[in-house]
Amino acid sequence: MVKKLKVILYTIMPALWLFSCADKQNAMKIKGSDTEVNLAVELAEAFYAGNEAYSLAISGGGSGLGIASLYNGQADIANSSRPLTDDELFLFKEKGIELITHVFAEDATAIVVHPDSPLDEIDTETLGKILSGETDNWKTLTGADLPVNIYGRQSNSGTHSFIRKKLDIKFSPKAKEMNGNAQIMEGIKADPSGIGYVGAGYLLSEDQQNLKVKALKIKETGAATVVSPLDHEAIKAKAYFFQRPLFQFIPVHSWEKVKPFIDFEKTPQGQDLIRKSGYYVVEE
Questions:
Q1: Which of 42, 101, 116, 121 has the fewest CB atoms lying closer than 10 Å?
Q2: CATH number assigned to the domain covering 108-236
Q3: Could you tell me which CATH class the domain 4-106+245-276 is placed in?
């Protein structure tokens, strides 16, 4: 059978299907984090090139969606940019679903503004006040009398949860809830009043170089230094405030089926793809 590659774009989430005459035993469904979806596609395409007996379906939609898909039996791997919550752990245990947790990369979340913004860095206390809505005008920070427009994610997004917990805030009810990194990038690029957050891996992706935004350097309140999410050495030293592990959750009953793909991620080729996508390899 001739190898086929079909890309389908849905309104809510992107999906990549790579398929052959594989039977169900070799059919993998990977769902979840929008932060990880571009990397997952790159890895899947490279894996499929040497393993045409397998069928892979990759889609984003948020960490919460991927985890829910595992619970409902609609996925073999849930990509997640956050750990499982206590409620999720309870539900899986109650249903008798045992999970394997695999950390396959490290990510940094970038705080981004319009490229013409005079702001280059921000401390975490000030950022928390902006994203919570306590500070709703740029005048005190940049001199421009403009309302702050926040571009964020829905509550099922792992990145949304990550930022909220790191800053210990509740997001402003006026924050725009976008479907993914691409929408946030497009919004910020067109809005001089905008501020938002995206995965640094997405920001560094070669496919996104035309989406020009400015990534702010972050200063943890009380610290002496500011750190960029694009500074590989700082991330390696775990010096950036908004960095985190990227998870893959796998039901034990799917492990044998997905193990060849997980093993591929650990190969030199897989590790190189992780680095080239702007993420950081987890050193074991």
A1: 116
A2: 3.40.190.10
A3: alpha beta
